[in-house]
Specification:
It is built from 20 helices and 18 strands. It is an alpha+beta fold and about 550 residues long. The strands form five sheets. The chain has a six-stranded mixed beta sheet. The protein has a four-stranded antiparallel beta sheet with strand order 4-5-3-6, sandwiched between helices. Helix 16 links the parallel strand 9 and strand 10. It is globular, with a radius of gyration of 24 Å.
């Protein structure tokens, strides 16, 4: 039976790609030496595909039990990748998926075939469009990178007739061959003895496509990526081509095509590794610069930038030759330290008073792995407990912990998903205990703390609690929408009641700047009058904090 790319195959492809990148993430991070040897290409690709998977699943969930149409699924995949793209590699992958989606949905090149499935010829054209659009998005394309691998995959597919399964297999084989040739095309790869990390990630994604269509797992690619990954991790600092810009700047941008054309020209003059992907009024901008403020200002002039992420290529990564050079502290190391990602100035002060080294998380500016590694270095301790305090940071934090371990630091990553859980962990921290015992106690305290967040809905959407409208207050318990309300106090009270229904001894409230004190007073009174022997503690989150965080221990 001929193999076609229908909505179920696209769904399976996304899930298998995420699984493959999760399995290969550390290997890909380890061979990341170009364009910046910051060891996060695998993590960035994983997070980009994770966002695409979430968007695809949302389409299926929103229309169950009826299946969605193929254009809706591939558009969701591309949009999810676009808004979740991380780093240079993730941004390029987002454009590759967008190019494929344009053809698979039937809205490229004037076509209007919105069929329920794609056949071999359509997939060939989709792979070609993906390679072309990705190359167009990069200001200065370089051979020996993911662009070369994508072009080779499209060439191999063009030369092969058959159904979608045959075409995908040909594209995968062509990509593997091109990947193995990248060290001979790019000097920095040849010196490190590794293949291109972004290309290696694309091979994993194409392998997932082949498996989704055929049902059979593909053999992993050969070459130097597997055998010399650890060597690359040890040598990558010496393989960077001199010093480069100090910052990576990424943001989503709402702007028209003409404004984006002017933006490309301006950013090209400010730095390098410029990639601008997207279209239809929404773009993802990535650039490496020395003046991060100027890069953001250019976005403001072009349109409305948001989800701004600025990562400092800190001392000891791509732009130095020794992991302790530059601004790293000198003198005797402390025995143990806590490093925590914290949203809001008020909570940052609270964590600092407790002795933690703080990495600020501002709206739309999720810290990168390089920023976390720099914070671990600033902590200047033999042992470090890392609190990411955000579910989306778990892979970024894992990459940072792995890098710090190569520098001789013993790092324990506690998978806290909220600053509330981090507070609970800090409360039981005792540096006099043995490291393992301290980590176990902190992990147990964090795990025993349920957390919730109050947010405001930006648009009408489906949730686990029903349909919300723009402007509604949402109570998210453990990351899922559980309560929808029209007034902040009532929504918070209902959320609290849901959480306390399972029991609890302590309620922690963290209020954003826009929440008046009387809201906290009402909630404290409600807990005191309704739940015997349950204490309440209130903190101010300060600027850049969530509307409200709630913890129950």
């Amino acid at each position: 039976m001929p193999q076609v790319l229908d909505v179920h195959a696209v769904r399976a492809w996304c899930a298998l790609a995420l699984e493959a990148l999760g399995r290969d993430r550390e290997e890909i991070d380890a061979i990341n030496v170009y364009p910046v040897a910051d060891g996060d290409t695998g993590t960035n690709l994983y997070l980009t595909v994770e966002s695409a998977v979430q968007a695809v699943e949302a389409v299926f969930t929103g229309l169950e039990p009826a299946p969605p149409a193929l254009p809706d699924v591939v558009h969701a995949m591309a949009h999810g990748a676009l808004i979740g793209a991380r780093g240079n590699s993730g941004t390029i992958l987002a454009q590759l998926l967008r190019g494929m989606a344009q053809v698979l949905a039937g809205d490229a090149d004037g076509e209007a075939d919105h069929s329920e499935s794609a056949v071999g010829d359509t997939l060939r054209r989709a792979l070609r469009r993906a390679a072309e659009s990705a190359r167009e998005a990069v200001a200065h394309p370089v051979e020996g990178t993911v662009l070369t691998v994508a072009a080779a995959a499209a060439d191999a597919a063009d030369g092969h007739s058959g159904d979608c399964g045959d075409v995908a297999r040909a594209a995968y084989d062509g990509a593997c061959a091109a990947l193995d040739a990248t060290p001979g095309q790019l000097a920095v790869l040849g010196r490190a003895g590794v293949v291109d990390a972004g290309g290696r990630g694309l091979v994993a994604v194409l392998g997932a496509l082949t498996e989704a269509l055929s049902g059979d797992p593909v053999a992993p690619p050969g070459g130097r990526g597997v055998h010399h990954a650890r060597v690359a991790a040890d040598q990558s600092l010496d393989c960077a081509d001199g010093e480069g810009p100090a910052f990576e700047v990424i943001y989503l941008l709402e702007a028209d095509d003409q404004a984006v054309a002017r933006l490309r020209t301006r950013l090209d003059g400010l730095g390098d590794s410029l990639v601008v992907v997207g279209g239809d009024g929404l773009w993802n901008v990535h650039v490496h610069v020395d003046d991060a403020g100027a890069a953001v200002e250019a976005g403001v002039e072009a349109g409305r930038p948001y989800r701004i992420r600025i990562t400092h290529f800190a001392a000891g990564d791509a732009h130095t030759t020794h992991p302790t050079s530059g601004s790293a502290p000198t003198g005797e190391r402390a025995q143990r330290a806590i490093v925590a990602v914290v949203p809001g100035e008020g909570l940052a002060g609270l964590y600092s008073e407790a002795g933690a080294t703080v990495v600020p998380e501002r709206p739309g500016e999720v810290p990168g792995s390089g920023e976390l590694v720099e914070a671990i270095r600033r902590a200047h301790a033999r042992e470090v407990v890392l609190l990411p305090n955000d579910a989306e940071l778990r892979h970024t934090a894992a990459a940072a912990a792995e890098q710090a371990r190569t520098e001789g630091v013993r790092v324990a990553l506690i998978p806290t998903r909220s600053a509330i859980q981090g507070i609970a962990a800090l409360a039981v921290h005792e540096k006099e205990r043995r490291f393992d015992e301290d980590v176990v106690a902190m992990t147990s305290a964090a795990g025993a703390t349920r957390y919730a967040e109050l947010a405001v809905a930006e648009r009408q959407s489906w949730t686990m609690a029903g349909i919300c409208q723009a402007g509604d207050f949402l109570g998210l318990i453990d990351g899922d929408v559980a309560v929808i309300g029209e007034e902040v106090t009532r929504t918070a009270r209902t959320t609290l009641d849901r959480m306390l229904a399972a029991g609890g001894e302590m309620v922690t409230l963290v209020l954003g700047d826009e929440v008046p004190d009387e809201v906290a007073d009402r909630l404290e009174r409600h807990v005191r009058e309704t739940y015997l022997a349950v204490d309440t503690v209130v903190y101010r989150g300060g600027r850049n904090s969530a509307l409200m965080l709630i913890g129950v221990e």
